[in-house]
Write a structure and sequence with these properties.
42% helix, TIM Barrel, 8-stranded parallel β-sheet, globular, 13 helices, alpha/beta
Length: 280
């Protein structure tokens, strides 16, 4: 079966370096070193897992003071390895204003990237903040999708003050506002959205332009209500992602299998919905 992984980070030195103070917190959260691999090792990880990856760029410069893992870098990695990396999400820092808008145009029109990923908790913003609407208008005009993290994160978890990050920035109702204000914008919520999984279910069901990928979470720990909804009213909305390198692909794929869903449903989750919704 084809497996499209919508949420893979480069896991190379530029990506590790761009996270600045979050690196130590992530190592503590995942209870293992949070360190870089070579590009060849990353591609081998994808090959061993049998996934076709969509890479994710990361720009947190306003909050971390570190250079981004840039769109040009991530697009280059994609284009060097098209057999395993099939597309890439761009990233822009909303606080950069006109520079973010210019970078958004470049990412799509020149680099040919899929759309944009946003990490509200790490970036210290909510996607429904009116000051960022000129950026959303630009992205909407480009006709590309966005992927937005919802729910808590390992970034800053357990550290004093969570390193200044605020969980409310990743509440699903911020996505609900954005979906209502930009009805033509395809929005993919990333992660199960705990502790607001029920709220995220409501948003995905109510807004026709909102979809959901469940990366960064061991499937056996999905809330029971979510497990049931995946097999019924959410089956045409759910897509697969790993949040690589957070959780090994082997564990994720094994636990998805242990949920016992029929083959036809897994075809939708692993590739069919991403093909239909995102054109992959």
């Amino acid at each position: 079966m084809r497996i499209i992984d919508l949420h893979c980070y480069p896991n190379t030195e530029p990506w590790i370096a761009c996270q600045g103070p979050y690196v130590e917190a992530l190592a503590q959260y995942w209870k293992r070193p949070w360190s870089a691999k070579s590009e060849a090792e990353v591609i081998e990880d994808f090959s061993q897992a049998g996934v076709q990856a969509v890479l994710v760029a990361l720009d947190l410069e306003t909050t971390t003071g570190t250079p981004p893992c840039s769109n040009a870098y991530v697009a280059g990695m994609w284009k060097r390895h098209p057999e395993r990396i099939i597309q890439a999400w761009a990233a822009v820092d909303p606080f950069k204003g006109e520079a973010a808008i210019e970078e958004a145009n470049t990412a799509i029109r020149e680099l040919g990237m899929l759309g944009f990923h946003f990490h509200p908790i790490m970036g210290h913003f909510a996607v429904n903040d009116p000051q960022f609407y000129p950026l959303w208008e630009t992205i909407d005009g480009l006709g590309v999708p966005v992927m937005i993290d919802v729910g808590t994160t390992g970034m800053g978890a357990g550290m004093p003050g969570g390193l200044g990050a605020k969980l409310r920035h990743a509440h699903p109702l911020a996505v609900d506002d954005l979906a209502a204000d930009f009805p033509n914008l395809k929005i993919v919520a990333a992660h199960p959205g705990w502790p607001w999984s029920d709220e995220m279910t409501a948003v995905a069901l109510h807004k026709g332009n909102v979809y959901w990928e469940l990366s960064g979470w061991a499937p056996k720990y999905f809330p029971e209500a979510l497990k049931k909804d995946i097999a019924s009213r959410l089956q045409d909305k759910i897509m697969f992602g790993s949040d690589y390198p957070s959780i090994p692909h082997e564990r994720l794929l094994r636990e998805w299998d242990q949920l016992g869903y029929p083959q036809a449903l897994m075809e939708k989750i692993f590739h069919g919905n991403a093909e239909r919704i995102l054109g992959l």
